[in-house]
Specification:
six-stranded mixed β-sheet; 11 strands; alpha/beta; five-stranded parallel β-sheet
């Protein structure tokens, strides 16, 4: 597509990098909050084009990576009950819980299916009305509308065998938690364009005001990211803090009104645990009581699981908070690989560890 070629044009990329260097007079640390942006940054080696005074750090921008261990344990326990089908996204079946992952549950005989959308899971439920189906739905506000639509379709059709184990989370509260951390070095944010395309930018001005931190809504192509960085640096250099939309071809301040309405009808905001961050106030979405019959936790009386710790060798929490770069982890590429991951950031296609392993893997470390 022509617009993709334009946003990846080498001459334009180098011109944007030069403009960024010219605008920078002192060190700045900026965090991107989107796994897709992280992969673009690593894949295109964008830090090598930046002046050494600009440091990019990666935030918790991967919804698979922040799905709590205890929710994965619940999904695995449901799948192993037998007599039902559990459907989820491809990335989720390899994410480790405290007792294993969904792939190992499938090896033990569980009926675990990979789908690309909750609407695909709804189709599977229609095909087998005699068999319960649980959709294990995860994601930021971006994927919540599709889950909401599936639940509303099931309600209209009175599809009694369809339920959802929901683990949808909200990005702005997590950004607030990061900024509240005394170890935080973030001076500016590149906000996730796909999230803002759905829910708009209404929650960001309060963050800007409270923390005096610039937030620039940014796209996913190399030129998008460099342009977002330039807007952010110009604010920092001028001593300003404001919300700017640098992804206007997709984002409007009000977002997608139909998608927002669907989320509001089906979900309510709750305090929710994030893997690596802990309990995030107003950080999640829960299925409303009016749709309780489609909530797998209520339908199957799922026991709350005890919060579990990561494998002690895994430093995913520091990676997700932007406190550690993946290659600095002692297990990166040795004890932790995509084939044998210790933590979620090495599994997901949007995880920071997977990005570095795929695009900038260092020479192999000596086996211990």
């Amino acid at each position: 597509m022509r617009w993709v070629e334009e946003f990846r044009d080498p001459a334009a990329i180098h011109a944007a990098a030069a403009a960024l260097a010219a605008a920078t007079t002192q060190p700045w640390t900026i965090m991107e909050v989107c796994g897709g942006q992280t992969h673009t940054i690593v894949r295109w080696s964008l830090p090598e084009l930046l002046p050494p005074t600009i440091e990019l750090i990666h935030g918790p921008g991967c919804p698979v990576c922040v799905t709590p261990i205890e929710i994965i344990d619940q999904a695995r326990a449901l799948a192993l009950r037998g007599g039902l089908t559990l459907a989820t996204f491809g990335d989720m079946i390899r994410v480790p819980g405290s007792r294993g992952d969904l792939l190992s549950a499938r090896a033990e005989g569980a009926d675990v299916r990979v789908v690309s959308s909750p609407l695909d899971a709804l189709r599977l439920a229609r095909e087998r009305p005699d068999r319960p189906l649980v959709m294990f739905a995860v994601g930021f506000e971006t994927t919540a509308p599709a889950t909401a639509a599936a639940i509303e379709f099931a309600a209209r059709e009175r599809l009694a065998n369809f339920t959802v184990l929901a683990s949808h989370v909200r990005v702005p509260p997590a950004m607030a938690m990061i900024l509240s951390d005394e170890r935080c070095r973030v001076q500016g944010f590149l906000a996730a364009g796909h999230v803002c395309a759905v829910v708009g930018t209404g929650e960001y001005p309060a963050l800007v005001e409270q923390f005096r931190t610039p937030i620039v809504v940014t796209g996913f192509e190399p030129l998008d990211i460099l342009a977002g960085l330039l807007l952010c640096v110009r604010q920092l250099e001028a001593g300003r803090a404001a919300l700017e939309i640098g992804f206007r071809r997709a984002v409007r301040p009000e977002g997608n009104l139909a998608a927002r309405a669907a989320i509001d009808r089906v979900f309510e905001v709750i305090d929710a645990p994030w893997r690596g961050l802990g309990l995030v106030p107003a950080g999640g979405l829960s299925i409303r009581p009016s749709f309780a019959s489609f909530d797998a936790v209520r339908r199957f009386d799922v026991e709350p699981t005890v919060a579990a710790a990561e494998d002690r060798r895994c430093h995913a929490a520091e990676v997700l908070r932007g406190l550690l770069r993946p290659p600095a982890c002692p297990e990166f590429g040795v004890g932790c690989t995509p084939e044998r991951p210790l933590g979620a950031p090495m599994v997901s296609t949007e995880g920071a560890c997977a990005a570095y392993y795929r695009h900038h893997r260092p020479p192999p470390k000596a086996a211990r």
